[in-house]
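Progress narrative, work stream C.
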Amino acid sequence: MQRRARCRVYGYTNSVERFKRRSAAGPNFLACLECNEIGNIAFSNFRSLVLKFKVLPMQAQRPGDILVVDSDGVFTSGLSPVLSACGHTVTVCRTAAEARYELDRFSFDVVLCARHLPDGEGQQLCHELKSSTEGSITPVGLLVSGAREIDEIMYRPSGMVAKRQIERVPPDEYLSRYLPLDEMPARVQTLMRIGRYQEEIANSIGTLMKVAEGIEEQDKRMTGHCKRLSIMAVELGAVLGCDEFQLTALERAGYLHDIGKVAIPGAVISKSERLSPREMEIIQAHCVLGERLCADVAALKPVLPIIRHHHERADGTGYPDRLRGQEIPVLAQILSIPDIYDALRMWRPYRPPMNEAQAIDLLRQEVSRGYWNRLIFDAFIDQVLPGLDERLNSAHVLWPAI
């Protein structure tokens, strides 16, 4: 039997760790614009694609594959038949080594693991699984003797949180070994439902990210913009002290900030002549369109302000809402600097790509005019740019050669 494929969620961890180690449909579209229904046709079609990824209750309730890791044969011999009677496929392992072997070969819907194993701790096995790319959304239930054992896991005798626990990824739930066996299927089903919802959310976000990357395929000279911006934004956010939640938002925004361009005619995007006022209005609409396209995915709620406001300027001359200074969301301000830098380094129909020195000089002039936050700019120049080309090259997303 082969390992079942799971959607791979884009993760910022590798980028941060590497960084820390170093220290033509014009007429119809214009008609929609006049009615203030910008991109309505493309939006409705794309919205239907997103809705396909909403979880159906039947999908969340179906039986699944369960891994039980416990050396107590009496306990597992009682639990396995109960879960099997509900339609689940149950695999039992006695040791952590056996569990790792099974997890390398197969993907499970739920893992139930004893706290103590003959060759290690269940908490460590849980940490390894939840820290991996494919296992991060797999629900894990840690089997304990009762509330007192949970207190031992979470707290020192003095009441202080144990440092060794802070460093581990915790299980999704603590399950008492002494629960009546007929209650176990309901608890397992709850864990399974959570895992499947998380997987469907990851699938929908992954699909949106792939669509955003597909916009780059309209012109090979734009290839890699999303991934480069994601890497730079996460590194800059880490320098500025963003937490894990904010770094995830920045990483996703790096891919999704321009997704609204999917509804804009390619002839307008790639036009080499000066844009007319109407065409400029169409281009500027991509921020609002992108926000609308991603609004149905609840997990992207923190990303929506970044998508909408990443073209705002501190002096109020940006778009779409002409926000000024601190009215602009901080994460949108962080994304703007590497976004402008990457745009300057890329070919444009009206100019050749700039080198690093030219791009920095132009950005510095714009900071002096009050366009961008000087603190964020200085952090980008001093702590992100050094060695950036080498890091992007190692990720195979260096700017395309013209």
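Work stream C, second folded protein:
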Amino acid sequence: MNSLSSKKMDVVGKSICILLFSLAAVAGASAQSTCANGCMPILGQVQVPSSQALALNPALNLLYQSTLFNSAQGVTVIDGSTCPIAGNASCTYSILASVTGSGTAVDLKNDNYWTGGLYSNNVLIYSGSTNTQIVTPVNVGSPYCPGEVVFNGKSRIMWVGAQCGPGNDPVFAIDADTFKIVKGPIPSGGTMSSIAVNPTTGRLYVEYEVYPNTGVFVSEEVNPKTYLVTTTSFGGTVLAINPVANLIYAVSGTDLQIVNGSSEKILQTKPLNYVPTFVEDNNALHHLYLGNPTTPSIEVRNDVSGELIPEPSMSSFPLPAGFAFAGGAAVDSVRGRLYVTLSLSASGPYYVYAFEDLSTARSCQDSGTVCGVGVGIR
């Protein structure tokens, strides 16, 4: 049996500092007072079995928390409607189902969600309403272990990243309507790390580790028409994409890069002095969220300029007392919510916290600012 590598699978994970804290911090977080200045209101939280990835269906208001390239594979389905009003972490989200899988991506056309089956060599497709498999799994062939998925709703292609290469892990392009493999295996050149797709251009971005276990990571892209694999010109790891503005958010070392999605010209480079645990974009509020593991806090920047939000009370929010980042994050641009996986220690317990960011939305009408329309996670 081939081994899996999950050391780069905590969404970013290169130098995530998971701090050790006491379990007693849970009580302190639950008793946290209503945020007035310097923190982001908490809608609720729920304990989950793992820490690595989050995906969202904004139409059904469902959240999918999953492992990535971890033999203890599992997807937890969370009901996002459980906690509609800020409750200072006292509200607990409902868990609707737990299914087998690694990584999750949602097809909003039919609310199906896809996930990797690892050692089964399969990609699994579940109904968003029943949480049961709807078709025969797509088999990518031995020895490949599908463990990460991202969806391009414009081209209707589900991209699947696999490990167990060995040393030359591939990606696969699958038609989301016919459930047939369009192309693959497409070799990456090393150990699969992370993938992201730009729906506007169709390009898939892949980061891999130079084999074997060198700690050297390479950023590359896959042409959606020719499937030719080339190294990116900007060099950073792609962590988030704004399809509305066609902007790519990448991290190179400790620098945030904002890149034009078409020309791939670097538009902004912002020194961070830390490696973010995650980068997520709310294109409705123009808020770019970065997990700062050194503070630990959630940093809020303008998603075009990369500058910190000018109001000090809105530019950085501390985590609930005793918690550190544990990997996954996701944004609901429609509802103004940021979901983040947090942990009390390096080995858990793990929690998904929902933060509410309506600071800009509530002031839009009075100020006359056009806030834009949220498109959620695609």
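The chain has a mean pLDDT of 86. No further action is required on this item.
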